[in-house]
Specification:
Blueprint (H helix, E strand, L loop, with lengths): L12 E3 L6 E3 L3 E7 L2 E4 L7 E4 L6 H11 L5 H13 L1
Antiparallel strand pairs: 1-2, 3-4, 3-5
Length: 87
């Protein structure tokens, strides 16, 4: 995962699943779940958005657990994705 491809429209507004704030799609991180693992969105499948402000919060992990259902090492996955997105 060296290069992060961002999929977004220029003026689309989406909502963070944690804080429910609406923002431009380019200002949110888009995730998807594949085989019980949290991943950055790669262009296919269902996805959800989390804003950069909510990413380090404890509440984020609880909400993503509801979406992922059978998550293992969820906190580690969130931290890894946060590091990739900050580059």
């Amino acid at each position: 995962m060296s290069k992060v491809t961002r999929y977004y429209a220029t003026k689309s507004v989406r909502m963070c699943v944690v804080c429910r704030q609406r923002d431009l799609q380019k200002n949110l991180i888009r995730f998807k779940v594949l085989e019980s693992a949290l991943q950055l969105y790669d262009g296919s499948g269902r996805s959800f958005y989390v804003c950069y402000m909510c990413l380090p919060q404890r509440k984020t992990q609880q909400i993503i657990k509801r979406i992922v259902k059978k998550a293992e090492n969820l906190q580690e996955q969130i931290e890894e994705i946060a590091q990739i997105c900050q580059k």
